[in-house]
Amino acid sequence: MTTKTPFIIVAPPYNPTSAGCVVLHRLCDALNRMGHPSYLLINIGDQFIVNNDSAYFDSNLIRTNFTGDLTENCTQLIKDGIVIYPEVVIGNPLNAKKVVRYLLYFDGLHMGQKMNHSDNDFIISYSTIFSNIHREVLYYPILNDLFNAEHTQMSEQRSIDLTYTDNRKEKENVHIIENTIHINKSWPENKQQLANILRKTRYFYSWTDLSSTNVDAIFCGAIPVLIDPDPAKLELMKTSETGSLPCYIAKVIDGNLFTWSDVKFHEKRISYIKRIKDYEANWNNNVSNVFNKVLKHFELS
To answer: Are strands 47-49 and 82-86 parallel, antiparallel or unpaired?
Structure first.
């Protein structure tokens, strides 16, 4: 019987609030379902932690445990298998012979420097908008059943408005819109609390053009209002897997906020949600298709 190639996925400890982290752990699950023993090597800062402690993982997802002397086992797997780095890992710190780079965001934007890939690395992008050097795209929507608009009022009938900021500092003059509640990465404290407030929200003023929280707002029936969006990013969204985000556009002019609505918002919202759910349903098949090409690239198929 032919032994299937192992994969070692470098990832942070599981964090359901981090889209990139969830995708890496889900990738491990999907590869194991393909029959490839796939391991999660925990990365915190400059540390790589070989550990089977359940505290690092989501118990609902499949992973293969390291065995015996864990460090020796991991070293041998790196030698024999394929290492998958997210774009935040610079260079090849594990000295792997076969490397896949998974760009979960724009290369270099988080770390301030490029990932420094080699010519033989197989580059996968989470979205077409993040890269122009990738071989394949592997998109997984981060969905949570908590985010839905069932048994809620139509958005225009709601009374709560929110301002959303994060720490990316992509725009100048970021501030809390008057008569809104401010939310960010730190508050609400969990997804349940976030869903509760989004399901009551009318306008979701967002200073971040590309954020999974914008999508959470869509699913909860709120109307995202992108403030001073980058025109280039709006164009990128048009070519992304899910297409343009249904939203209103707002601009700050001489200290005043002006908003442009979209009369087809609700129609676009329904189509947008369907496209996303289709990607979720096809995730395992898409992983199989992409990683069969990875194996062929490294002459392992």
So the answer is: unpaired
pLDDT digits (tens, 9 = 90+) for 245-282: 999 999 999 889 999 999 999 999 999 999 999 999 99
DSSP at 299 = T
pLDDT at site 173: 87
Please identify which residue in the block is written with the tokens 């914008």.
214
Pick the CATH number of 7-140+280-297 from 3.80.10, 2.40.128, 3.40.1350, 3.40.50: 3.40.50
Taking the C-alpha atoms of residue 33 and residue 29, their distance in angstroms, rounded to an integer, is 6
Which of 133-137, 170-174, 216-220, 237-241 shows the lowest per-residue confidence on average (mean pLDDT)?
A: 170-174
The residues pairing with 47 across neighbouring beta strands, listed in sequence order, are 44
User: Tokens at residue 162, please?
Assistant: 């929110």
**How far apart are alpha carbons 233 and 235 in whole angstroms?**
5
Residue 2 above 70 pLDDT? no
Backbone angles phi, psi at 277, to 5 degrees: -65, -30
| Token code pair at residue 276 | 């996303």
Alpha-helix runs per DSSP H in 81-177:
none
Domain boundaries, the chain: 7-140+280-297, 155-262
For the chain, strand residue ranges (E) read: 7-11, 38-44, 47-49, 82-86, 99-103, 122-125, 136-137, 160-164, 181-183, 201-206, 223-227, 248-253, 256-260
Q: What would the mean pLDDT of 10-37 be, rounded to a whole number? A: 95
Structure confidence at residue 1 as a pLDDT band (50, 70, 90): very low
- Residue identified by tokens 């985010």 is 147
Cα 144 from Cα 200, distance rounded (Å): 17
pTM (two decimals): 0.84
